[in-house]
Write a structure and sequence with these properties.
The structure holds 2 protein chains of 2 kinds. Chain A is of the alpha/beta class. Chain A has 5 helices and 11 strands, in the order E-H-E-E-H-E-H-E-E-E-E-H-E-E-E-H. Chain A has one domain: Class I glutamine amidotransferase (GATase) domain (Rossmann fold). Chain B has a domain of 55 residues: Mth169, Chain: A (2-Layer Sandwich). A 3-stranded antiparallel sheet of chain B has the order 2-1-3, with helices on one face. Classes of the chains: A alpha/beta, B alpha+beta. Chains A and B meet through loops of A and helix 1 of B.
Chain lengths: 225, 93
C-alpha cells in the first residue's frame, strides 16, 4: 500500500482529518510525521496540512520554511514525489520557493471562512488526475493571508495546472486559489479539500469537491500518472 | 505647504516595550540562532506605519507624526515603545 506522510509543524492543526481523508478516500497508508522526523525517501507522497505553523510569526509559513523538512521536500520535489500543500501548507511551499508567488493578507482585511467554488485549469499530475479542464469543485477556505500574488500572472496560468476561485474571497490576482509545478507533482492551494470529502461537511449548495484530490492521489500512487 | 506627491515620509515603529514578553520576536530569535545565525541576540517584532505628511521641515514632520501616534494611540504606552523617524524628504514612500 502506498505510504503518504502528513507533515506536522508546531501549530499545524488539520493533520488528523487530512490523514483520515487519505486513508478513507485515497486508500493509502497515511501517517502524521513530525517535521524534524520527515525523510522524503521513506514516503511515496507528502501532504503539508493547514494550520498556523509557528503562530504565523513573521509571515504565514516563514519560520516553517526554515525547517530541515523543507530541504527534504525540495529533494522530494526534485525526484518527482507528489507534494500537496493546503492553506498554511501552500503558504509554506511558497515561502520555501517550491512554488512561485506570495500569499498576502486578504484584500478585505479580514479572516475569511466560507465555502467557495473553484475551477481546475490545465489538470495534470497526481493530485488532479481525475479532474478535467474546467471542472468545478466546492470546498471551504479559512485564512487571513490567502491573497495570491505573482508579478507575471501568465507564468502561472499559461501552462501550469492552477485552480481558480469562481467567487474571489480575498482579492487574489486572476482569482488564483492554487498553483502547481509545471508537471503538477507539487500543488499548493488555499481551499481545504479535507473539509469537503464526507457528505455531512458541505452546506446546501455545495458538495464534496475535495474527494477528487484524494481519489486522484490514491489512483496515481497505485497506477502512475 | 504644497503636498501633492511631496511632503515627508515618517516611519512609526510600534515595538514591545523593553523587557515585555514578545513570543513572536523570541521565536524568530530562537529559530534564527538554530539556523546558525548565532550572533543574533534578540528580535523584537512590532508594527511599522509609514505616514506621508505635509510639513515645512524634518523637525515639524517628526513632531506632527509623533503627535498623531500618541493622540490617536497608534501605540499603547502600557505595552509598547514608540520610535518615530523621518525616512525621506519630498515624498517617495
Amino acid at each position: 500500500m502506498p505510504r503518504v506522510a502528513v507533515v506536522k509543524f508546531p501549530g499545524t492543526n488539520c493533520e488528523e482529518e487530512t490523514a483520515l481523508a487519505l486513508r478513507t478516500h485515497s486508500g493509502v497508508e497515511a501517517k502524521i510525521v513530525w517535521h524534524l522526523d520527515y525523510r522524503w525517501r521513506d514516503w511515496d507522497a507528502a501532504v503539508i496540512p493547514g494550520g498556523f505553523s509557528y503562530g504565523d510569526y513573521g509571515r504565514a509559513g516563514l519560520i516553517a520554511s526554515w525547517s530541515p523538512a523543507v530541504g527534504e521536500l525540495r529533494e522530494a520535489a526534485d525526484n518527482n514525489v507528489p507534494i500537496l500543500g493546503v492553506c498554511n501548507g501552500f503558504q509554506i511551499l511558497v515561502e520555501a520557493g517550491l512554488l512561485p508567488g506570495a500569499l498576502l493578507p486578504n484584500a478585505g482585511g479580514r479572516f475569511v471562512a466560507r465555502w467557495v467554488h473553484v475551477r481546475v485549469h490545465n489538470p495534470r499530475g497526481p493530485w488532479l488526475l481525475k479532474a478535467r479542464e474546467g471542472d468545478v469543485y466546492s470546498m471551504p477556505v479559512a485564512h487571513a493571508e490567502g491573497r495570491y500574488h505573482v508579478d507575471d500572472v501568465s507564468s502561472v496560468t499559461a501552462d501550469r495546472p492552477w485552480i481558480e476561485y469562481l467567487e474571489n474571497p480575498n482579492g487574489s490576482i486572476a482569482s488564483i486559489a492554487g498553483v502547481a509545478s509545471a508537471d503538477g507533482a507539487v500543488l499548493g492551494m488555499m481551499p481545504h479539500p479535507e473539509r469537503a470529502v464526507w457528505p455531512w461537511q458541505p452546506p446546501p449548495g455545495h458538495g464534496t469537491g475535495g474527494k477528487m484530490l484524494f481519489e486522484s492521489i490514491g489512483l496515481a500512487l497505485k497506477r502512475g500518472w | 505647504m504644497t503636498l501633492e506627491g511631496g511632503g515627508y515620509c515618517v516611519a512609526v515603529l510600534v515595538l514591545p516595550r523593553r523587557g515585555a514578553r514578545d513570543p513572536e520576536g523570541e521565536t524568530l530569535a530562537r529559530e534564527l540562532r538554530r539556523l546558525g545565525y548565532t550572533r543574533v541576540a534578540d528580535v523584537r517584532a512590532g508594527k511599522v506605519f509609514v505616514i506621508r505628511v505635509d510639513a515645512d521641515s524634518v523637525e515639524e514632520a517628526k513632531r506632527l507624526v509623533e503627535n498623531v501616534a500618541r493622540s490617536a494611540r497608534l501605540y499603547n504606552p502600557a505595552v509598547n515603545a514608540l520610535v518615530v523617524t523621518v525616512l525621506a524628504e519630498g515624498g517617495g514612500c
